[in-house]
Amino acid sequence: MIPITSFGGRAVAVFGLGGSGLVTAEALAAGGAKPIVWDDGEAGRKAAADKGLDVRDLNEIDWSDVAALVLSPGVPLTHPKPHWSVKLASAHGVEVIGDIELFVRERRLRAPGSPFIAITGTNGKSTTTALIAHLFAAAGRDVQLGGNIGTAILSLDPPSPDRVHVVECSSYQIDLAPSIDPSVAILLNVTEDHLDRHGTLEHYAAVKARLVEGADTPVVGVDDAWCAAIADAIEAKGGRPVRISVESQLSEGVYAVGDRLFSAEAGRAVEVASLAGIGSLRGAHNAQNACAALAAARAGGLTLYQIQAGMRSFPGLAHRMEQVGRLGPVLFVNDSKATNADAAAKALSSFPTLYWIAGGKPKTGGIESLAEYFPKIRKAYLIGEASEEFAATLEGRVPYVRAETIEKAVPLAAADAAASGLEEAVVLLSPACASFDQFRNFEERGKAFSRAVLALPGIGKA
Q1: Which of 18, 167, 245, 333 could pair with 255 in a Cys bridge, judged by C-beta atoms 3.0 to 4.6 Å apart?
Q2: InterPro entries given for it (predicted)?
């Protein structure tokens, strides 16, 4: 845990008592602050009371004594309207911040300038975060991995000059961290997302931009117009952004051509790494992630040899292009995290020939946008509520069977792929749907796929 000493002796209101909220309150208490905590749900309040925390309705406290409101990132700050706790804090002139901001302030007190790598983007941030942490860990560095990737940042070990904090940041978390100042910050991409919480795409992009604007080394993907403009704006203010691309060969920055990564300076490019044969980093989207990780790792002092070795040993993330097993020439890939068509497109583009398991709780737009990948699909195995709708889209274009469940789809796809005679056939779960018709979440869906694959006779390691 990181005791938060910057509010020592002062009252701090904490709203939102999920996992990170409870850790935040405990970290404040450990640093000498007096947290007053509340949650709209009884379960959260009980969990806090069981830990001996001061649980009080924030509507009934004396706000004149409160130094800050620490808000859970899942609670609306501005859109569609500020949460009632935010309105209370604002009415009393109390700043509203999040746990990332608490970390940032504690880092400045304990170990200013210590390695702090922060990652954001609409897509790819979890894989990039995990890859960067893996590169440093494989090189023997003390690495702390947390943030939006699933581990509360204040549950990590405290900042120190020889400890690298690698932190995934959502737009919600950045919005609550006004003084964030990483040593390296990465902005991968900006596409339309979370407008219910940010109002407009312009505001969403501006929030994302704050992360790289405050960094010593800003790393910015420039394959979308929003991020390209952000990189230009940083440069116009005297900054030196490291641009990354998988669509253009840059004169300055890091870019990918297929599975080869290049570093360019003053118009001269040198190949510095290769993704060839690294299944966990297959596809153009992972090439972008790898470019960003390479730029961050070099800024953090790793050698090219250490970076290449680390990439080759990267296992990938569960449920994100995860190679589950192999049955002769058939590779089984779990991409359960692909909960919409845009996400599924990245997986479909990564393999030449596919036996595709798709479906679940459908989202607006269906899979018509994936038509360019239909010629690669030998057969589709449709599951869940979307099976009828997806069947109508595929009719006459892709052979399909309505398997309805993963347990039925996997052996059907395995048999067809094995009989294809291909040197490598891929059975891919990339549902292009939410999971809530048959599963609690995409993780449970991915686990069901893995169980079905590992139950196949003769299955081996990928």
Answers
A1: 245
A2: Mur-like_cat_sf (IPR036565), Mur_ligase_C (IPR004101), Mur_ligase_C_dom_sf (IPR036615), Mur_ligase_cen (IPR013221), MurD (IPR005762)
Q: Are 418 and 327 in contact (CB under 8 A)?
A: yes
Give pLDDT tens digits for 333-368. 999 999 989 889 999 999 999 999 999 999 888 999
CB atoms within 10 A of CB 89: 23
Per-residue model confidence (pLDDT) at position 304: 97
What is the per-residue DSSP string for 292-352? HHHHHHHHTT--HHHHHHHHHT---BTTBSEEEEEETTEEEEE-TT--SHHHHHHHHTT-S
Q: Is 9 annotated as a binding residue?
A: no
pLDDT digits (tens, 9 = 90+) for 419-461: 999 999 999 999 999 999 999 999 999 999 999 999 999 999 8
Convert the pLDDT of each residue in 288-307 to its tens digit.
999 999 999 999 999 999 99
- pLDDT exceeds cutoff 90 at 209: yes
CB 329 within 8 A of CB 214: no
Check the annotation: does 127 bind a ligand. yes
121 annotated as ligand-binding: yes
- CA 56/CA 23 separation, integer angstroms: 17
Average pLDDT of the segment spanning 43-54:
96
Which domains does the chain show, CATH number per domain? Answer: 11-97 (3.40.50.720), 101-312 (3.40.1190.10), 322-454 (3.90.190.20)
Asked if 187 and 227 count as a contact pair (C-beta separation under 8 A), the reply is yes
Closest CA to 186 of 274, 104, 127: 127
Q: Which structure tokens are listed for 307?
A: 């970076």
**Is 113 annotated as ligand-binding?**
no
List of E strands, 226-274: 242-245, 253-257, 260-265, 268-274
Q: How far apart, in whole angstroms, are the C-alpha atoms of residue 189 and residue 223?
A: 7
What's the one-letter identity of residue 437? D
Is omega for the bond preceding 73 within 30 degrees of 0, making it cis?
A: no
Q: What is the pLDDT of residue 196?
A: 65
Is 126 marked within a binding site?
yes
Provide the residue type at 372 as one letter. E
Find out whether the peptide bond into 457 is cis, omega within 30 degrees of 0: no
- Whether the per-residue pLDDT at 194 is higher than 90: the answer is no
Residues with a catalytic annotation lie at 125, 148, 194
- Here the contacts of 36-43 (C-beta below 8 Å, separation 24 or greater) are 36/11, 36/12, 36/61, 36/66, 37/13, 38/13, 38/14, 38/85, 39/15, 41/17
Query: At 292, which amino acid appears?
Result: A
